[in-house]
Each structure stands twice: as structure tokens, then as C-alpha cells.
Design goal:
Layout: H1 2-12, H2 15-27, H3 32-60, E1 66-70, E2 77-85, E3 89-94, E4 99-103, E5 108-109
């Protein structure tokens, strides 16, 4: 019953307050092994979220769709058309005629 009240009170706490509380608890940990375990949990959670985000985008996008992405190499937004969908990346032909292997998480569908 106490766990239920704890969970209900967590719903009432804003995200900033929850983050502050978590940071406070982590700052009190003196065990390197425990901190490594927490780090592993956080990294795993981030990877899981990124994987789901990429999966959602992959489902929504089709070959022939017009997309854009932020180019790390060129530092600007690049536009192109999907020519092939692979497991984790799409082959995109840019407007300049170059082919790029772009992770689905970086792609945004362009609506006309």
C-alpha cells in the first residue's frame, strides 16, 4: 500500500522536481560499483528510447518520400529522397545527386 502512495505522489511531482530528487540521491552514493550500475541502466534506457524512435520513423517513411536531415559534415540541413530502406538506415539521394546512408532517427519527412 505504501508503494502505491509513493507512486501516486511521484505523479504529482513535476519532472524538474523528480530530476532534482534523482540527482540528490545519486550525489549521495559513494560506491563506484553502484554508480557504474546506474550508468549502465541509464545508457541502456537511452539506447532503448533511441531504438524505438528510429523504429517509429522507419515505419512512417517509404521509398520515394522526401526527407531532410541535419548534416554533421556540412553543418546544414540537407534535403533528398529515400531510394532504399535498410535495417537501421535509409539510402537517401540528396538534391545535389549524392547518396547518403542516414540513420532513421536523423530523418524528418518533408511535407509540401
Amino acid at each position: 500500500m505504501q508503494l502505491w502512495f509513493s507512486l501516486m505522489s511521484m505523479w504529482r511531482i513535476s519532472m524538474n522536481e523528480q530530476l532534482r530528487e534523482v540527482m540528490e540521491l545519486v550525489s549521495q552514493i559513494n560506491s563506484v560499483d553502484m554508480l557504474r550500475s546506474i550508468n549502465e541502466l541509464v545508457v541502456t534506457r537511452i539506447k532503448s528510447i533511441n531504438h524505438l524512435d528510429g523504429f517509429k520513423v522507419k515505419i512512417e517513411l517509404k521509398v520515394g518520400d522526401r526527407v531532410s536531415w541535419q548534416s554533421r559534415r556540412r553543418g546544414c540541413e540537407t534535403f533528398g529522397t529515400i531510394v532504399k530502406k535498410n535495417r537501421t538506415r535509409a539510402v537517401v539521394r540528396s538534391d545535389e545527386g549524392l547518396s547518403w546512408n542516414v540513420p532513421f532517427t536523423m530523418l524528418s519527412k518533408v511535407t509540401l
